[in-house]
Structures are given as C-alpha cells and as structure tokens.
Specification:
heterodimer; A: mainly alpha; 2 domains; two-stranded antiparallel ribbon; two-stranded antiparallel sheet; about 5% strand; globular; B: alpha/beta; Rossmann fold; 4-stranded antiparallel β-sheet; 13 helices
Chain lengths: ~325, ~350
C-alpha cells in the first residue's frame, strides 16, 4: 500500500508538470499580448511595463516557465507587489490577487456543488438502477430505462433555467441559488442555496448511473457465484447485496471517482446557469481575460482532481476486489 | 397419475428423492424451449444416481429445478419433485431457502466461477453453516476450518482466510465440496464436479466424494457426460437425451447390457485403453434436435440407425415411454429381442 501511494504520487506530480508545461506553451501560441490583457481595461503605460516585467514576457519561454515552476516550490517576488510565498501559483494581474488565493476562495463552492450533487445522483441513479435490475424486463424496468434515456438527453442550461423560474421565482419553493453563505456560517442557508443546482447537475449523471448500475447488476446477477449463494440457502436480499451488488460496484465506483474528479475541476455550465462562483466560473474568467497565471492555476486544479481521483479509485477497487493487488 | 408410484427405479423401495413427469420450459424470444419434457426418476437413500447425457440434454436444468433455482418469471415448471416426502415444486421460497444448503446441496462444475471472488473461503463455508444452524460467528468459523480439514486441505486454519483465486483447481473443488457438505445435507447434487480438473485430481475428488458419502450416508445425484466417471461413481444410471430419460438401470445393467440405441452410441463413442488404436471411435451421426421444436415421437429418431426396424413409422409419431415397472428399462420401440440382437450387431460393427 505504501509503495503504491509513493509510486502513484510521483507519477501524479510528473503528469501535473507536463500539463502545466503544455498549458504554458499553448497560451503563448495564442496571438494576443498577455501583458496587454493582463493589465486590464484601465491600463496605464506604467502598469503595462510592470506587468511585462512581472510576467517576464520578454524572457525566453523556458526561462518564464522555470520562474513559474520555481515559484511553486520556493515562492516568488513580484516587483511593486510584494512576495508571493510558496506554493505560489503566480499572480493574477486582472484580479490583483495571487492565483492560489483566488482558487482557495472559489473551491468551497465547487466542492459543495460536487459532493452534494454526487450524493443526489448516486442515491437516485444507483437506487433506480437496482430496482430496474431486480425487476428486469418488467414494467418498472422499462419505465426506469425510458426515464433515464430522457434524463440523459436533458441540458442543464435549459432545465436549470426552467427550474429556477418556476421553483424560485414563480412558486417560491426554493430560494434562488446562491453560494455566498458557506456551510460553516449557516448550514441551512447553504443547503437551500445549493439544493437546486445539486438536483439539476445530478440529472445528467443520474441517468448514467441508472443505466450502468442496471447493466452491471444484470451481469453480476447471472454470475455462477450468485447462483451458488442461492444454492446455499441464503435469502434473495442477502444474495443481492452481499454477492451481486459486490460484483457490480467495482465499475460504478470507478466511474463515480472519475466523475467527482471531473466535477472538482469546475462545473462550468452549471455554475454559469445558476450564477455560482466556483472553479468553473473562474476558468471562464481566466480564458476571457487572457490571464495566464490564473488559467494555469485552474487547469492544474482540474488535472490534480482527476489524477487524485484515479489514485483513490484504484485503491478503492483493490478494497472491493481481493483479486486486485496494488503495486 | 396413480401408476407413477410404481415407477420407482432399481432398489429404491423408499426413494429419498422422487421426480415425476418433470417439465421445465423456458420462454425465449424464439419460442418455448422444452429443456426437460416429462422426466421421472428416483434416488434411494445413500445411493448415487449418475445422470449421463450430452450437453443440452437437460441434466443441469433438472438439478436446478430440484433446488428451485430457476427464475420463475421465465420458467414454467410442472410435475412433481418429492424430497423425503416433501413436495418441492409447490413449496414456498422461504421453505426452499431452508432446505437449500442444509438438506440438499449442490456442487457446481466450475469452482472458480462458482465461489465468490470477494469473500474468503472460510467465510463462504461459515455463512452456510450459520444460516442453517444459527451458530455463532466463532462456531461457524470453527466448522469451516473443520470442513476444510475434512476435504483434505492442508493447513485449514490458515487457508480459511484465503480467497478462491489463491487455490489450485483441485483444491478449489474441495472447498466447493466442503461448502456443500457444511450442514450434512442428505442429498448432494454434483453437476460435473470433475470436468474442469485433470485426471489425477479428478480421481482424488471422486475418492473424496465416495469417502464422504460413506461417512455421511448422503444420496448423490451425479451429473456428467463422462462415462468413465459414471462407471466409477454411480450405483444407478439414468441416460438422458433431449430433455427425456431414454434408459434407466443399475450401473452394471446400463453399462453391460444397454438397451437403447442412444446408449449404445454413447458407449461406442467412449475411448477405451484396451481397444486397438487403429480402430476409430464411432460417434453418433447427426446432432441433438432443437428443443424449440423437438421431434413428435422418439426424440432420438432422426439420428437412430434402427428406426426402420420399427413398423409403421411409430418412432417418428409416438413417444416411447420408460417402463413404469422398476428395474432396467429403455424408452424405445424396439422389442426386447431386437434390442439384444441389434446391440450385438452394433458392438460388432463398432468395436471402438
């Protein structure tokens, strides 16, 4: 286990290094002056010069990357702006703030959105999938399969807007989505503010989990060891949960881990639809503003989330299936 | 059906398991598959019935029906299965759950696929025992270790904590047997338990089953397509073809003086060590019929070399029945004299 974590952490760092380098290069291929846009709308020649110097635009590309990378580990000084202590992901000139601070400000929203939504789509999706598998070929199965087909073709920006219009504006059942109140400040307000985004974001995932759970269970229910368990005299319920579900959950946990990793990188459409301020909204801003340090930051967060999710998934898989050995 | 009670097999005055006119039909997209279509047999206490037949003859389907493991929503079951005086086909699911694993147990062919890969073998054995005896965790665990020791697994205490994939094929089949016997079942159904094993391991497993039967007095239904295994294990033999019994008798009767042309064919297609090597085996020509639309008369008729010997095309039009009286018999329209004569001819023509 220890060797597994060590090895995977090392390769994760390598991946992040490569991703940051690629992002760096891609950014400079774009035909815009990063200093000009980083400087903002009210750009004075003095500020522009400061930005150029701090960005190091005039240095060769590898040297610029080296400065950025060194900043991550030992911190970095910005002339006229002060010291950005390690781990310094750079300084966002458009926002006049270190990138790390921006990200840590936004991350709670993304985390809340992701985990809350995951709870919703796992409960709904896996639950429906289980029912469909148990009632294979019967009415309930067909209804569940049809709903999940419809669900998977819905779009957040339509469902979200419609739901917001009726549930919040017209009927007043839910407050308008907001993320200004954190969980630690007022859990009830936090919960109400995110309830709608959770369900809307969950819609597209629920359908996937329903279909996946159903097909995995249909397969594992037909396994010989499930029949053996029945032949031993165990009840249907025991056989279902202890044997069939155990066999079905591996692939589901894998996809769940990757989906959570993906969502932690920012749910761009959902955040835009509901006006939430998470990592997704931040990445849009970074692209719009041509803000290289910020863009690098959000890309790395997204990449790190996926890489970590992969490691966790592999570890969990080994816990579920004793035939898999971590190495 | 008043006559059926007389239709007991050889030396089974008081059959422990009695199957009467069993029908197992599956609804499929292509139509109804008549996997078992009017099957009757008995198994006496402490005796071993060998059921032989090729793939698709309905052997396994029959035994899943005895345990009540068919999906009732897709299967039509009819007939009677009486275990120690208790009717199983009409029994409630709860009652069947109580019987499965305690009074009747099953050993499956592929132990690797049939044991749960997610649980240690000790736990899999213990959970059967705990379920049926209400024993504590510790008692069940002790029982599991004891069963592993009894089926000849070295260091049973340590190995109880291993998973099935950590065992060799033969050892895994022993685990399977230990699990099946954990509650001292009175009926053991072994569905090709040695087919996946190499010959020496196969012999060990068969010896083990024989020993355990001596010890526990278990009745065994042994399903196989391997006549070598049957000749070694069975007291009585039932030959199945396309969902029906074609011949029944003691081991000696069926192997020495087979009466049904299909049995002749089965025996003729088995290689023997003492036959000359240059004599080819004689497989039965043709393939088994589709069970979606089986022949109306004798199901072996399309492949039978002797159908012309029966007048008026009765083989094609009328179903031959196994004699209802006990003892050796075959479901065939040939007369007793014809059977003896043609069998001699058959053996003469197909010495392999």
């Amino acid at each position: 286990m220890f060797r597994f974590i060590l090895r995977r952490t090392f390769s994760a760092l390598m991946i992040l290094l490569v991703i940051s380098a690629i992002t760096f290069v891609l950014f400079y291929v774009a035909p815009r002056d990063p200093a000009r846009s980083a400087c903002g709308k009210l750009c004075t020649p003095e500020t522009l010069a400061l930005v150029r110097r701090n960005l190091g635009i005039d240095d060769p590309l590898p040297l610029q990357y080296w400065h950025w990378l060194a900043g991550v580990f030992v911190g970095r000084d910005y002339a006229g702006l002060g010291h950005c202590s390690a781990p310094c992901l750079g300084y966002s000139f458009t926002n006049h703030e270190p990138v790390l601070g921006l990200i840590t400000n936004r991350f709670p929203t993304t985390l809340s959105l992701t985990l809350g939504s995951a709870v919703v789509f796992v409960v709904l999706g896996v639950g429906t999938g289980m029912l469909a598998a148990v009632k294979q070929g019967r009415a309930l199965d067909k209804i569940a399969s049809s709903i999940s087909l419809v669900g998977s073709s819905l779009q957040i920006y339509i469902v979200g807007v419609v739901a917001m219009y009726y549930l919040s504006d017209q009927w007043g059942i839910l407050p308008r989505p907001q993320d200004s109140v954190g969980f630690s400040q007022d859990p009830v307000a936090w919960f109400k503010g995110l309830l709608l985004p959770w369900f809307v974001l969950a819609i597209i995932f629920t359908a996937n989990y329903t279909r996946m759970t159903r097909s995995q269970l249909v397969e594992s229910l037909a396994e010989d060891y499930v029949r053996t368990a029945r032949a031993k005299g165990l009840s249907r319920r025991t056989v279902f949960f202890r044997f069939a579900w155990r066999g079905a959950m591996g692939p589901i946990v894998t996809i769940l881990g990757l989906d959570i990793g993906y969502l932690l990188g920012g749910a761009i459409i959902t955040e835009e639809t509901f006006g939430l301020h998470g990592i997704g909204a931040l990445s849009i801003k970074a692209v719009r503003d041509n803000d290289l340090p910020l863009l690098l930051g959000v890309v790395l967060v997204a990449a790190a989330a996926i890489v970590v999710a992969n490691i966790v998934v592999d570890a969990v898989y080994a816990l579920i299936d004793p035939r898999i050995r971590l190495a | 059906m008043t006559l059926v009670s007389e239709a007991s097999g050889p030396s089974t005055a008081d059959p422990f398991l009695s199957v009467r006119d069993l029908r197992v039909h599956f609804a499929t997209d292509d139509g109804v598959v008549r996997a078992v279509d009017g099957l009757s047999f008995d198994v006496g206490r402490g005796r071993t019935l060998g059921i032989v037949g090729e793939s698709g003859s309905g052997k396994s389907v029959t035994n899943l029906a005895i345990l009540g493991l068919h999906d009732r929503t897709r299967t039509t079951l009819a007939g009677e299965i009486v275990l120690d005086g208790q009717e199983l086909l009409t029994a409630r699911e709860r009652e069947l759950e109580r019987l499965r694993g305690s009074k009747m147990a099953m050993i499956f062919q592929d132990a690797l696929a049939s044991l749960s890969p997610y649980h240690t073998v000790g736990r899999q054995i213990a959970e059967t025992y705990a379920k049926h005896t209400g024993a504590s965790r510790r008692e069940s665990r002790a029982r599991a270790v004891e069963m592993l020791r009894r089926v000849g697994i070295p260091q049973p205490t340590a190995r109880a904590d291993d998973y099935p994939h950590q065992f060799s094929g033969g050892m895994r089949q022993r685990v399977m047997i230990a699990m099946a016997l954990a509650c001292d079942p009175q009926l053991l159904i072994a569905d090709e338990p040695t087919t996946a094993l190499d010959v020496t391991v196969q012999a060990q497993i068969l010896d083990l089953l024989g020993d355990l039967q001596q010890e526990f007095g278990t009745s065994i239904v042994f399903i196989t397509h391997d006549l070598g295994v049957i000749s070694r294990m069975a007291d009585d033999i039932l030959v199945m073809y396309a969902g029906r019994a074609v011949e029944r008798g003691t081991r000696r009767e069926v192997l020495r003086t087979p009466q049904h042309p299909y049995t002749w064919g089965l025996l003729g297609s088995m290689p023997t060590l003492n036959a000359p090597v240059d004599v080819p085996l004689s497989p039965i020509p043709g393939t088994p019929p589709s069970l979606l639309d089986p022949p109306a008369g004798c199901r072996f008729e399309p492949r039978c070399a002797f159908r012309e010997q029966v007048p008026a095309g009765r083989c094609a039009s009328r179903r031959p029945h196994l004699p209802r009286t006990a003892g050796h018999g075959a479901a065939c329209h040939l007369t007793a004299a014809q059977r003896v004569e043609y069998h001699a001819d058959y053996v003469g023509a197909n010495p392999g």
